[in-house]
Amino acid sequence: MPCKVTGKCGSVSVRMVPAPRGAGIVAARVPKKVLQFAGIEDVFTFSRGSTKTLGNFVKVYKFVSIMCYCYLALFM
Description:
GO terms for molecular function: structural constituent of ribosome. Keywords: Ribonucleoprotein, Ribosomal protein. One of its GO terms (cellular component) is ribonucleoprotein complex. This protein is of the alpha+beta class and about 80 residues long. A hairpin with a 2-residue loop joins strand 1 and strand 2. The longest helix has 21 residues.
């Protein structure tokens, strides 16, 4: 994870911050699975809003992880 990334979907807003190596994914159960599937290894996450709405919760984590990879693709 190269930089801090934020995203919003519905009432759920998320911020992902790079973590030191070996810290792992510090997140709730559902976003942890999404981030593992995306291949992100070390990250701290902050969630705000109605996180019980799993559809929006998963969409925002997917969107944020895609934004992270777009950033890498543009500057490499």
